[in-house]
Amino acid sequence: MKTIDSKKNIFSSPTGGSYIFPFVLVTSLFALWGFANDITNPMVAAFKKILLITNFESSLVQFAFYGGYCLMAIPAALFIRKFNYKNGIFVGLALYAAGCLLFIPAGNAMAFWAFLTAYFVMTCGLSFLETTSNPYILALGPEESATRRLNFAQAFNPVGSITGMLIAKEFILKKLSKQTEEELQILKSTDLGEFQAIQQADLNTVSGPYLILGIVVLFFLVMFFISRLPKITTAEGDRISIGNTVRQLFQNRQYIWSVVAQTFYVGVQIMVWTFIIQYAEHELGMEKSTAQGYNIIAMSIFVLSRFICTYLLKYFRPSLLLTTLAVGGGVFTLGAIFIEGITGLYSLIAISACMSLMFPTIYGIALKGMGEEAKLASAGLILAIGGGAIMPPLQGWLIDEATWFGDFLSPVRVSFFLPLLCFAVIAAFGWWSRKRT
């Protein structure tokens, strides 16, 4: 157990001033990308119904969404290293807004690939924002309180997430056509014109909230343009070569294993929140909009747990809490797999309480003491968000194909062995990191 001096201002600048205003402004971005993440998760189920595609195909929404993080993470890190954090935020917000606005032509074209392109452009911007904002928050105050500061900032990410979930529930899922997938399949065969009219209306329903989101993002772009943000640099920053930095990162076992753990964490987070709807639909026969209500409960638990765990970091090492919560997440996942009915769904929801600490804690462990190298090192951790691109399609494929256990375990429940594997990896990393430090 350790104790951090709680009297020291975690927002103090080296000159004795305060970084509170830039902290608040940058923290608003955490809510903004949280909104994008969690208005998008239910769209996997929405596109499956609207376009009559498989679970694997509809999961390509997550592949495109989180694929943008992978492609843009390193270019974003190089950009902010050459320029600065504020310019990185400008580029991120511009790409984010552009991706949102692309939903209008995508809806008019009625083409799934066009929506995937819009998601990809949007998350290229989100990659810039996350690559920039996370190390920026770490730098806005004393190093010894950096992990607490990042956890505090990340605590506002779920505020945006819950808002996105509510918008998805009330203004998208509830407003989709009331026909079942089976009824739409029949209509497609018997009256193609009527089917396409319903499909167009549903795609317009999906596109509307993204148009409004694009306008909101443009407003934030203007806010950052007119605001003065501190330029965070280190004395040796300009002399550090990219080649030397990369070599040092690959030789840093703590950093490498942090990237691996982050990959599995993002994968499990996206799988759990994406497939709560499918779990509730297939195991309990719920409507999509009703099932999304349970997703909102899960996120509310996540928010509450984030604030509790951020407080506990004053007294416990991050690696110890990470290990404990990963074990807890694994136990609740076993409940979702082996317990039938509403209790299994409650177990699935409870996983969110265990995930709340993980992303910022792994991030803080990885970048501790890196200084200027954190700009490039953060790219690897944002690259790790690619776990959210790879694992949901794998789980979608399991839902489509995993009939190996017959009547004992349904394919939906079998698919949650993949999240269980992720928690095992995170627990192993947390234990290793605790022993190392």
Structure description:
It is a single chain. The chain is globular and about 70 Å long. The two termini are 12 Å apart. 77% of the residues lie in helices and 0% in strands. The chain has helices at 20-40, 43-51, 55-58, 60-82, 85-101, 103-109, 112-139, 146-154, 157-171, 181-190, 192-226, 242-250, 253-274, 276-284, 288-312, 318-338, 341-355, 358-367, 374-383, 387-401, 411-414, 417-436. It has 437 residues and is an all-alpha fold. The protein has 22 helices and no strands. It has one domain (20-230, 244-436): MFS general substrate transporter like domains (Growth Hormone, Chain: A, Up-down Bundle). Mean pLDDT is 87; it is low at 1-7 and 234-239. α1 (20-40) packs antiparallel against α7 (112-139), α7 (112-139) packs antiparallel against α8 and α14 (276-284) runs antiparallel to α17.
